[in-house]
């Protein structure tokens, strides 16, 4: 099985690295599943020059930036369509500011793939569209890990 880690990158102070690192380790080591971490995948789609100048391109050369972003979008959405079994998402104020997580969750929903979301935001502050795409919402990563262990853990499938 393979999990996709959805959440803010562009506006998140650490590009979403900390929670993705923790969840990647859990999913790989405890569940024995593979992980699609968009932070790890960027280098698969962008040339070294594009990666090096990626953030600056947004304001320097918008057309070049869009071409690079489209490579990332295509890679991420193709992965969700072809490889992914479920989505793990952190929904916070940074995810709400971007657009990628909206697209990823919508794609997963349209394909019937489970979306497990962690959010500490009050429900009234989460987009109705996003709520509609979500299979289950958790208050903490610990609660999510327990659910994933119960549902997908090695003991659950033996």
Characteristic terms for this protein:
single chain, 158 residues, Rossmann fold, 5-stranded parallel sheet
Write the SSE topology.
Blueprint: E1 2-7, H1 17-31, E2 34-36, H2 38-45, H3 48-60, H4 62-82, E3 86-90, H5 93-97, H6 100-110, E4 115-118, H7 128-133, E5 136-138, H8 141-152, H9 154-157
Parallel strand pairs: 1-2, 1-3, 3-4, 4-5
Task: Describe, in plain words, how this protein is organized in 3D.
This protein has 158 residues and is of the alpha/beta class. It has a single domain, classed as Rossmann fold (3-Layer(aba) Sandwich), CATH 3.40.50.450. Helix content is 60%, strand content 13%. The protein contains nine helices and five strands. It has a five-stranded parallel sheet, with helices on both faces. Helix 1 runs parallel beside helix 8, helix 2 packs across helix 4 (62-82) and helix 3 (48-60) packs across helix 4. The longest helix has 21 residues, at 62-82. It is globular and about 45 Å long. It starts with a strand and ends with a helix.
């Amino acid at each position: 099985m393979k999990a996709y880690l959805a959440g803010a990158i562009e506006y998140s102070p650490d590009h979403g690295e900390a929670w993705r690192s923790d969840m990647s380790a859990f999913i790989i080591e405890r569940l024995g599943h593979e992980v699609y971490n968009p932070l790890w995948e960027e280098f698969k789609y962008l040339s070294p020059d594009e990666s090096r100048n990626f953030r600056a391109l947004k304001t320097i050369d918008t057309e070049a930036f869009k071409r690079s972003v489209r490579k990332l979008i295509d890679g991420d959405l193709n992965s969700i369509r072809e490889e992914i079994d479920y989505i793990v998402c952190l929904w916070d104020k940074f995810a709400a500011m971007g657009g990628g997580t909206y697209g990823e969750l919508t794609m997963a929903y349209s394909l019937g793939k489970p979306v497990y979301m962690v959010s500490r935001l009050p429900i009234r502050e989460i987009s109705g569209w996003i709520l509609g795409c979500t299979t289950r919402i958790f208050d903490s990563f610990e609660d999510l890990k327990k659910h994933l262990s119960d549902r997908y853990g090695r003991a659950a499938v033996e």
